[in-house]
Amino acid sequence: MKMGAQVFQDLKVVEFAIAIAGPTTGKYFSDHGATVVHVESSTHPDILRLSPPYRKGVPRINASAYWTQYNTGKYDISLDLTHAEGREVARRLAGWCDVVIENFAPGVMERLGLAYPDLVKVNPSLVMVSISNLGQTGPYAKHRGLGQALHGLSGLAHLLGWPDREPDNPFAAVPDYLVPPFALAALVAALDFRRRTGKGQYIDISQFEVACSMLAPVLLDRIANGHEAVRMGNRDLSGAPHAVYPTLGNDRWCAIAVFTNEEWKSFCRETGKTHLISDPRFATLPARKAHEDDLDAIVSQWTIDRTGEEVMRTLQRAGVAAAVVNTPADLLSDPQLQHRQHFVMVDHPEIGPHRVGGQPSKLSATPAEVKRAPLLGEHNEVILKDFLHMEEEEYINLILSGVLK
Amino acid sequence: MELAKDTPDREAPLKPYRVLDLTDGYCLACGKILADLGAEVIKVEGPAGDRARQIPPFYGDKPHPEQSLLCFAFNQGKKGITLNLGHARGKTIFKSLVKLADIVVESYDPGYLDSLGLGYDALSTLNPRLILTSITAFGQSGPYRGFKQSDLVVTALSGFLFLCGDRDRPPVRISFPIAFYQACAEAAAGSLMALYHRNQTAQGQRVDVSAQEALALYTSNAPAFWELGKRLVTRSGRNRAEITSTVKSPQLWQCKDGGISFAIYGGQLGARVNTPLIAWMDSEGMADDWLKSVNWAELDMASLSEDFFNEVKKRMATFFLKHTKAELFQGAIEREIMLFPVNTLGDIVEDRQLRAREFWIEVEHPELGKTINYPGAFAKASLTPIIPGRRAPLLGEHNYSIYSLLGMSRQQVDDLRKEGIV
Known about the structure:
The complex is a heterodimer of chains A (405) and B (422). Chain A is an alpha/beta fold and 405 residues long. Chain A is built from 17 helices and twelve strands. In chain A, the strands form three sheets. A six-stranded parallel sheet of chain A has the order 3-2-1-4-5-6, with helices on both faces. A three-stranded antiparallel sheet of chain A has the order 7-8-9. In chain A, strands 10-11 form a two-stranded antiparallel ribbon. In chain A, strand 1 (12-16), helix 1 (21-31) and strand 2 form a beta-alpha-beta unit. Chain B is built from 17 helices and twelve strands. The radius of gyration of chain B is 26 Å and the shape is elongated. The two termini of chain B are 48 Å apart. Classes of the chains: A alpha/beta (405), B alpha/beta (422). At the A-B interface, helix 6, helix 7, strand 6, helix 8 and helix 9 of A face helix 1, helix 2, helix 6, helix 7 and strand 6 of B. Strand 6 of chain A pairs antiparallel with strand 12 of chain B.
């Protein structure tokens, strides 16, 4: 479906960005029509290009679908920033664009002469965001770590897992996904300020701090009441049964969450356990919480001979919150996500047709258009000649001096 | 770089904009993000108050409609009015407010606003520049539209739940409602994209956010593994996801007084991290010749043997158990080892990085006779302050001032209160 105007159709963005948080911030812009240039090089490629899954399992620089899903619709330049001429081209890109997104380790952009004070000289109204684990300042700002490390630091590991076991580690780096919408909101707000005043600015985002903002209610409980929130498995203070139960099949599960007494009665009727309605062990929420182990055993007995789909349909029909625990495979065929066209098929020159995630907000008048991700250096010529108006001779010289590799 | 402090002469980035916030439950945070950026966010509740006011934990542990810490956290910086949208006069008043608003954010069940005659079509007729943002579990349409939802159910359908937890137990969620928080952040981003478009074209629009879809991003590359090679990625507990390596590689480790986060890598990264760690172990007599002889740069995690890896793990685990997480973290900072503590919430409050960056802000609660430290801004900007504002509004606290925008006198507002409209 070809749409009309796009939100960011006149906007130009340059990314010095790697892995997830930076490129995902840029993806909002590219999916909504901006011209986004992703800067990398074959000597310093975006690390997700070197991370699986690859087409046919063979590691190749252009074959990672991990990388393509966060870089849809972007232009790509292979520019060696260790080379003085490469850094000069990078500064010209900063002069050309409206927004710079960077998420290198703090200090790297400074060392390259590409920090905000350097770039603002060539573009006084530049809006720039730096995203990092810990922020640009502070006693251990420069202590390096992958996104996974933030789970420990930010309390997310502490809150994941079972009360009788040590903390668990979430599969993916949660703050890497949490931060992009905040970065986008801060950037668009700054762009609006620029529209009103002509002034650009610099934004410093610490992923640690964003994660702490999320946990504000439990941090306030710690600060004001002295209570340390704990991991509770799948239980919840306001519901019972409230857990994940086994269903038919190997490693297949469903989630059920009963909060009110009415929902409990509906659950009993729908599962043919009407005798439990009058059982005093389960009549009220405090009673159900007190006998939660018994309750979970009863629920498991009912779920274990059914598919997750059947559990979900049966209980949802009765007004009880229940769901299949979707596997990654289920996710791709989940009817609701299909309805929202969450996964979009793109045809990539090396990977071929494959599905990538779209945008979770659906804008009615200006929907996102998700296009395939670029090859490494695919747009060197377009970016340098068309965007930066470089002469043929200068372009050739850059190639010959090994800057575009 | 010197970043903006809260000085009154600096204009917040969203200062010109007004938001009507109809959200409830775990969907309050979208308005909070817009308020942090300087928008005037007006929380609109029924005369009896939001359901969120009943959600624990509470200040002082006592259930009280003005003391829910969820509301403290995510209604911060907003103004608050009461209005009965079920009442004809209440609807008329709401429509008048909509004419003065840029964004309406809501989290009712799909179709509820339409049933009140306050759906997008009605509101956009009154104010074509309006942006109506809806936050729900699954979106405004589709097969799950009428489903009962909860954080656990949304997390299950997002695919994220399946990927968390230990193999010998069911998948497990984070004991905090992250699904709707992520949806709130996406709703703030979506609202501002729509606002950006509106300011170029004078055209408002609808923004439809699904928490399931927002949280599906947390499945990272797991769907791509299925898409490209029909490989089903599953949960791996305290270990790293078993994607590039066949051995069980811990991400979380026990130490003397808690846990740390640290992973063993091979190749250049491994050499950079493991070499200083082993030198540190050696300085305490805890690295034997075998460990010191490993050539990390040439080690390929994809092909090394379980036995070899276990020998390395055993030595490192012993070293970690001899030290506290604070000692390990400090030593890791000095030696550039990628190691971090597993913080409790209490540890976070004490964290010196957050303190040095002046992350915490004091928020006055005159009714409690207290000043409470709150988590601060989600970003620091060089020119326009991003500063969370005053404490969450009391029920109907700003009725007089907001309704005066519509030309109502205090007497008129008092009369409406008697009729149960405000």
